[in-house]
Amino acid sequence: MSGQLNEFRAMTRAVGARRIGVAALILCVGALSMLSACNTQDEYANAGNDVGDVNDVNDVNDDNDGDQNDQNDDNDETECDEFEELCNDECVDIDMDPNYCGGCDTQCDAPQNGTPVCDEGVCDFECDSGFTRCGDECVDLDEDSSHCSDCDEACPNPASGAPVCSDGECDLECAEDFTQCDEDCVDTEQDIEHCGDCGVDCDTPDGATAVCVNGNCDFSCDQGLDRCGDECIDLESSSANCGSCGNDCDDGEVCSGGSCVADCDAGEVECDGDCVDLDSSDANCGACGESCSSTETCTGGTCTCASGYTNCDGDCVDLSVDSDHCGSCGNECGDRGSCSDGECFCDEGELQCGFGTAASCCDEQTEECTSGSGPISVLQCQCQDGYTSCDGDCVDTSSDDDNCGDCGIECASDQYCCNGNCISDSEICLIMP
Hints:
Layout (H helix, E strand, L loop, with lengths): L1 H44 L5 H25 L9 E2 L4 E2 L21 E6 L2 E6 L4 E3 L2 E3 L21 E6 L2 E6 L4 E3 L2 E3 L21 E6 L2 E6 L4 E3 L2 E3 L19 E4 L2 E4 L6 E3 L2 E3 L19 E4 L2 E4 L4 E3 L2 E3 L20 E3 L2 E3 L4 E4 L6 E4 L3 E5 L7 E5 L4 E3 L2 E3 L19 E4 L2 E4 L9
Antiparallel strand pairs: 1-2, 3-4, 5-6, 7-8, 9-10, 11-12, 13-14, 15-16, 17-18, 19-20, 21-22, 23-24, 25-26, 27-28, 29-30, 31-32
């Protein structure tokens, strides 16, 4: 509709111009005719008039010229057509003129390869021949990689390369040292899927990672594995490569911890070359090398007291002979002698003094069993006559080198005690009666 209106306005302006031209032509022709008739009549009526008459005519013509100039000055105050406005002393159609589109201050712009247009006072643009409008651009669909063959068709942008559009078909250009493989630019010196050439995929054994080195396929073994030829091997458990590549274990052996060991039955493990049951082995109770004591046995992988032994404060003891646990845990014989058959008895050369837990053993040579003083008479060991109690021992202070004459008096190393006195080793002791 806007295009038809613009055509109509252009035709109106053209028709108006033609009408003005025809009217002017008619006036000019009429004026010339009248002037010719007048001149002819004057020739017959005023023959012989002097030059002054001609000057009068020239004066009249000058006056007419002045009137015509005044008329031209009046025309300088331009009046524009109905569809035009005066912008910078120029009548323009602001609905169609891209330099004054919608108003005198609006000039339309166009993108590269485009031409600005004004449509009903709104700026727009038209693309040049050979270019297509895509959004706010004018593009060549045969060469533009962002709009290749179609506005919405963008060519893939590969790493290490650049997209190219040629005759409306997408392609790419790879950077230096890179090779085009399908729609990618790859380094065939390092790419494991195109190693040395496009499509050459590097294969790897189990437990390995493929690598491409200088265009040749290779592999690296995962952590914990070692390379043996074209394989990645666990040298800790491989019977064919036990501890090192090619070390093959003998029949009946397996590889454990990088060493060939006996192939044990179910429920057994190898410990120092032997197959053992960790639930019952006293030397390997619960784990290899975890041994039980002589009074313990391995039960269910735990060391417990062997038969005939009792656990007293974490120790396995024989209550029948243990002086610290005689008959029961914590029952100490102490001064009551030794434990036998779970009871405390005095040793040979000793005399039992008292009864039960209050009993003690007296040294038959230096002590005697007597009742003590006090309201309750208790049998106890006391020193015999001629003996003195020093730090719980009955000693003869007349001859004891550590208690010579009295408790705590020690004779020198070159002396000995004689009759309660320290004398030289060179002296002879005369025993007093």
